[in-house]
Amino acid sequence: MARRREDRRGGHRIGRRAVRLPEIRCVGIRRFALVRLTILPDPGPSWHLVGTGDFNNDGNSDLVFQNSDGTPLIWTMNGTTVAASATLGNPGATTRIVGTGDFNGDGKSDLLLQAADGTPVIWTMNGSTITAGVALPNPGATTRVVGMGDFDGDGKSDLLLQASDGTPVIWTVSGTTLTAGVALPNPGPTWQAIGTDDFNGDGKADILFQSTIDGSPLIWTTNNLTVATSTILPSPGLNYHANTG
Length: 245
Ligand SMILES: [Ca+2]
Ligand SMILES: [Ca+2]
Ligand SMILES: [Ca+2]
Ligand SMILES: [Ca+2]
Known about the structure:
Elements (H helix, E strand, L loop, with lengths): L3 E3 L5 E3 L2 E3 L4 E3 L2 E4 L14 E7 L8 E6 L4 E7 L2 E7 L8 E6 L8 E5 L5 E7 L2 E7 L8 E6 L8 E5 L5 E7 L2 E7 L7 E7 L8 E6 L5 E7 L2 E7 L13
Antiparallel strand pairs: 1-2, 2-3, 4-5, 6-7, 7-8, 8-9, 10-11, 11-12, 12-13, 14-15, 15-16, 16-17, 18-19, 19-20, 20-21
Bound molecules: calcium ion (4 copies).
């Protein structure tokens, strides 16, 4: 078998042929070759991972699943160990968990659900206990809640919705109260809103779209509930589905 050894530059040599092994670079870490891979227990095929958040504010992200029958399940995590597992009351199979956000700014993640008729519902959480369940006004069954982000920078999550004609709408929320609803310019129904994230680090959520025509991602940065910049990125192809972290 060819002898393999590490050369001065961190490359590897097999016989006479120098090869570069894959490596991963991270900010602040020059180079590492070993990645810890932890496979968690299998909750079963009827459980779908629908979000992550810190429900008990211990600094460790927790996992939230929803069963095909509608039952939510929270895994309270300690690093990569499942410290506790708790199911919540079943809102019904036609009510989907959209994701997590901190709507009341207490540092503990809350849940946002949307019923089949379009009604968004906020469940404020204390760990895996529902402390309040409040329905917001119904934008209609054809308007989808896309995700949550803090658009006005007050430390409380707001909602991003998209109507079936493509119009994005921001709902600012304080606690469980809808405080404002602002429709943004319509990019058209072929730009599907994917989610929110803070792409320019200004503390205010921005919007990620993806074209249903060619797969191009589109980022809108926002400021004061208006579109500040609009940037179309190169298309990775229609088979690649954008997501926000
Ligand atoms: Ca946690
Ligand atoms: Ca909260
Ligand atoms: Ca906010
Ligand atoms: Ca931003």
